[in-house]
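SEQUENCE AND FOLD
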Amino acid sequence: MLPLDGPTRSARSGTTRSVVVLLHGYGADGHDLIGLADAWRDALPDTLFLAPDAPGRIADMLGGRQWFALARRDGREYQDGVRGARPLLDRYLDAVLASTRLTAERLALFGFSQGAMMALHVGLRRAVAPAAILAYSGLLAGPEHLAAEITCRPPVLLVHGEEDDIIPVQALGESEACLADAKVPVWAHSIPDIGHGICPEGLDLGARFLRQTLAG
């Protein structure tokens, strides 16, 4: 049994050869992202999509979940948060690979906002690199620690709306520079007139990146 639960979409072809784990943002749950599978299943017919609900509930937000609590929304809180949430997500990814009998290079991580922080933090510290990390409208938490802690260098796609009023687009360039310094293959895209969300252009970028990376 997986240590986290959430909505899924089975491989359209009926044969699972890869898996994409979708990590939602603060205040959402897995249902907020599982619709991405419907947008990507034509491009990735052999892919299983999983959208686990984060373990933490938000007391004053009906149905809202969190990977870690937010109060100050500063760098230290992000760093402590991803570190505290990492063990459970690591166990979940290990269980996904065991249950599907897939190897790590057939696994991709997608994260939005707080989920993007989790995808970058955990994905770059796995024992074996995943096929790819896609981080939308997020940031690299604790960038000053990456060089000492990184264990693998999967290709990374960063996508950010230029009108984001939750996590400013400046985070895109900062994350890109830190990843490049750590010799992580990284592609960064800012999208004009888009706020804190995922637009059709972002969906297309993600589909192409997943198709390329999961194909090896």
Observations:
- Residues 160 and 190 are 5 Å apart (CA to CA).
- The chain has a mean pLDDT of 96.
